[in-house]
Amino acid sequence: MKPTIQSDLRSIFGDRMQENVPLSGYTAARIGGPADALVFVRSADELAQAAEKLWEMDVPFLLLGGGSNVLVSDKGVRGVVIINRARLVKFDLQSEPPSVQAESGVTPNDITQRAARLGLAGFEWAAGVPGSLGGALYGNAGAFDGDIAGNLISLELIHRQHGRQVWPVEKVKYSYRTSIFKREHPPALILSAQLALSHGDPQAIRAKMEQFSEQRRETQSPGASMGSMFMNPSGEKAGRLIEAAGLKGRRIGNAEISTQHANFFINHGQTRAEDMKALIDLARNTVAEKFGIKLELEVEFIGEW
Question: How far is residue 64's CA from residue 16's CA, in Å, rounded to a whole number?
Answer without folding.
Answer: 15
